[in-house]
Design a protein that fits this description.
337 residues; mainly beta; Jelly Rolls; STM4215-like; 7-stranded mixed beta sheet; 5-stranded antiparallel beta sheet; 3 helices; 17 strands; 13% helix; 37% strand; globular
Length: 337
């Protein structure tokens, strides 16, 4: 088993299942900077809302900022009083220096100005896109999210940079960009629904992490733990000449599994829990590709062989028992040139 084949499918599945919080970007003005909720704390400058070329080839979702006096700091406040008290929040976005940048970065803090966290673009004098992500744990008195970005260099007026796909998530990890109202359903929401169908008291908690590849499984910090493996890939080539040359239809055999640790006395309940976790996982994948199969999951769709639920024998060691279950899927992707 390896991740090097059909890595795109494995990463797409992992990103979908790791959606944190309510599974959406809670910042509702995410694709440009035109909304009145985007403000400027000090300085003068402009924010162009004519969307420009994005960080992915063929996309057109970036907005451009021009700092006229070296003090221009656009900011946004998210939430109401108390919404994010005692909460871990991650803010992320894509940044591209265009010209004159020396100290481009993203800052996150609560409305009172405490808990400041800042991340800087690693090469502000260049022109490469870079993904910046900031995570902080707000305390009991924190009530709103205050995020700001800028070049932060009063001695260097005239800096220009592009911004794309701002995202605010409740959780400690930034997922791949999930547009607001994308229609996806987070795994934990599905598991909570499944749990309500039964009266046996078995709780369902989505894995907080989905490992990619078998070597990533050598260290498990929190149970249950999810994993995504790619067993093999069949690539059916189109003609080497004429229309469509170099195009392929890829069929990857993808394993999506969950491992859990419990007491030997809870073995029966652990098996039931495992089945329900995998059921919710399959439903999340199905929901993701139902609105637009060609754009969800990075273009990978579940097809070919019927998905299989596989449960391996439990392993007991000392006072612990380990259970494992997995979905065997065939995922298909067409690449046209």
């Amino acid at each position: 088993m390896t991740l090097t084949l059909a890595e795109g499918a494995a990463v797409a599945v992992s990103d979908l299942l790791e959606l944190g919080g309510d599974g959406r970007n809670v910042l509702t003005q995410s694709t440009d900077l035109s909304h009145a909720d985007w403000n400027v704390s000090v300085g003068t400058g402009t924010m162009s809302v004519a969307l420009g070329t994005g960080y992915k080839a063929g996309t057109n979702r970036s907005a451009q900022v021009t700092d006229s006096d070296g003090l221009f700091v656009p900011f946004h406040i998210v939430g109401n009083a108390g919404d994010y008290a005692n909460t871990t929040v991650t803010v992320s976005g894509w940044f591209q220096p265009v010209s004159g940048c020396t100290n481009l970065g993203l800052t996150l803090r609560n409305i009172s100005g405490a808990n400041t966290e800042t991340v800087r673009h690693s090469a502000p004098t260049g022109t490469a896109w870079e993904f910046l992500s900031v995570t902080t744990v707000f305390g009991a008195i924190a009530d709103q999210i205050y995020m700001a970005f800028g070049n932060d260099d009063a001695l260097n007026p005239g800096a220009v940079w592009n911004v794309q796909d701002f995202q605010v998530e409740v959780g400690s990890k930034a997922t791949s960009y999930v547009p607001t109202t994308d229609g996806s359903t987070p795994l934990q929401t599905l598991l909570t629904s499944i749990q309500a169908e039964f009266v046996d008291g078995i709780t369902l908690t989505a894995p907080s992490e989905w490992k990619l590849g078998e070597y990533d499984l050598e260290s498990v910090v929190e149970w249950p733990c999810g994993y995504v493996l790619v067993d093999s890939l069949d690539a059916s080539m189109f003609g080497l000449s004429g229309a469509g040359k170099g195009s392929t239809i890829n069929n990857a055999r993808v394993t999506v599994g969950v491992m859990d640790k419990t007491l030997p006395s809870e073995a029966a309940a652990a098996k039931r829990r495992m089945y329900r976790l995998l059921r919710g996982t399959l439903e999340a994948l199905m929901d993701a590709q139902s609105p637009s199969p060609l754009t969800s999951l990075n273009g990978w769709v579940i097809g070919g062989a019927t998905p299989q639920f596989i449960f391996t024998p439990s392993i007991a060691t000392g006072s612990s028992m380990f259970v494992d279950g997995r979905l065997e899927l065939t995922m298909t992707h067409t690449e046209s040139r």
